[in-house]
Amino acid sequence: ESVNVRSAMAIMRKTVSLFGYDGTCLSFNGGKDCTVLLHLLRETFPETYQQIRLVFFKQDNEFPEVDAFIEDMQHKYHLNILVVLGGFKAGLSRLKAETKIQAIFLGTREGDPHSDRLEAFSPTDEDWPSFMRVHPILHWSYAQVWAYLESRPYCSLYDQGYTSLGATTNTRRNCLLKLEDQQYRPAKMLGEGKYERCGRAGFLLCPPTSAAVIGLLGCAAAAQTDQCSAVLRGCGVTVKCVIGVSEDEPLLPLMQTLAKSLDLLVILDNSAVPAFHAAVTSVQHHPSFSTVEQRAFVLVAPSEPVAAMEDCLFAQLQQLKSNASLHNEDAQAP
Questions:
Q1: How far, rounded to the nearest angstrom, does the alpha carbon of residue 132 sit from its chain's CA centroid?
Q2: 295, 164, 313, 150: which is closest to 231 by C-alpha?
Q3: In the chain, at which residue ranges do the beta strands (DSSP E only) sit?
Q4: 206 to each of 212, 227, 242, 324, how far by Cα in Å?
Q5: Is residue 251 within 8 Å of 214, Cβ to Cβ?
Q6: Short-list 66, 2, 65, 64, CA closest to 34
Q7: Which of 38, 74, 89, 128 has the maximal Cβ count within 10 Å?
Q8: 247 near 275, Cβ under 8 Å?
Q9: Do residues 158 and 136 lie in contact, with contact meaning Cβ atoms separated by under 8 Å?
Q10: For 42-82, what is each residue's pLDDT tens digit?
Q11: What pTM does this model have?
């Protein structure tokens, strides 16, 4: 057993010693992190894990594969699963009123939304039903999750390019796992765990955004613009066109024309080509694209290495989304 597995098991044992089997439950929605908890629970309490209730806070528009996986786990391991409708907070209120449960195992990990102030044992906030939230894998990395799950059952969607699961209405395959033949690599092949939520609604730009991708002509450049387009689509951006230009072609007239009908103009820069790099820099600082009245936003990312291009794009897209949210809040303020 690894250190992280032993630590998680120790947290589970402490929880049951404090709250008992009847006072402890596991929040289980079929996702990878709570599936880790299910297997840890079985291995920590091999003879008695069935005494701990699992609670499925069922949302609208669940993936059929998620429902099938949960049913399969229920039959395979003879689990006691309570299905609760109506949302997480309302579900907790029901648990408080109808059961003896006091502590809930959750699959939250560092980097998840609202995880920055959590500890292994964290009481719910004052305006929520009173429970002890228990986070056995809070400090596990994405890679550690998949190292543990690789030899254990998990939902089939993770082998189809999904890296984080929500509802069918707010979840897409991770664009970073897409192959040239329109297929996707499995979730465990994602190199950077910080991108596991790419494809979830929180990563997407809203309202719908249209874009053009501009890069140098050439075979290598074509592969780079294709990858750039995949990243943009994974963030909810509609790529209207991909344009290859020669290194000495004037960029500004092209950009000004595209800006009349598109929201984002994404340029893949190449500092090794001085003339093109100078043209990109000139566009960035031109008044058409450097004032708050601009129609379109210009994003510039390095064409290589690919990882640097992806990091740069994600950072700029998230900044755009943040700025848009602040703008909307200001507009709605009295």
A1: 26
A2: 313
A3: 24-27, 53-57, 81-84, 103-105, 121-123, 132-134, 209-216, 237-245, 264-269, 297-302
A4: 17, 21, 22, 9
A5: yes
A6: 66
A7: 38
A8: yes
A9: no
A10: 999 999 999 999 999 998 889 999 999 999 999 999 999 99
A11: 0.69
